[in-house]
């Protein structure tokens, strides 16, 4: 079984050895993992609510009410259009960048790849397979999360290895990718949850510095650590014979 401190130490050494490329790749990955459009749509929704409720309790005339209602409809339409746009962008571009970023951090363990590895999924000749597999990963995770919080968290860790598996095996059948990720994470979900918790101090620093620490240290450190986890699991899978 892997050791949390050992994974983090190796991850830190790997990303600091190739610092600037790691920062760029981790930043791109974080934009799509964190649903980069959410803050914008949240502000638009606030505008929608503001228009509906009136100006700080000010009683509006009928013409002002109509204008506010029209503004609310426009705001809702903008929110919907932006949400759909970024959803499509994530499915057809963002998810492939996540796979490419995973490839970068795998390669970064033994070499010094450039940030251009981000585009490796587009050059793999398996664009459609990666798009479908990553879309299903997100869809299944979303459906499980609708049930209760805990099943969603469990499935998050169960599917965690899929981008890394696709990074090295872009043509792998989606059913096999899900099955291998599930097997890799069997008996490890709690330990990986604790591994995530061990970054909580860094996440607090990220918040205090308005994301600056996240961009220049926390995200590349975290991504490099999870790549180390994948490499350990891949080696164990070879030893146990369920991948060749």
From TrEMBL:
Keywords: Membrane, Transmembrane, Transmembrane helix. Pfam families: DUF975 (PF06161). It comes from Schaedlerella arabinosiphila. The chain crosses the membrane at residues 20-38, 66-93, 130-154, 192-218. The keyword Transmembrane applies. This is DUF975 family protein.
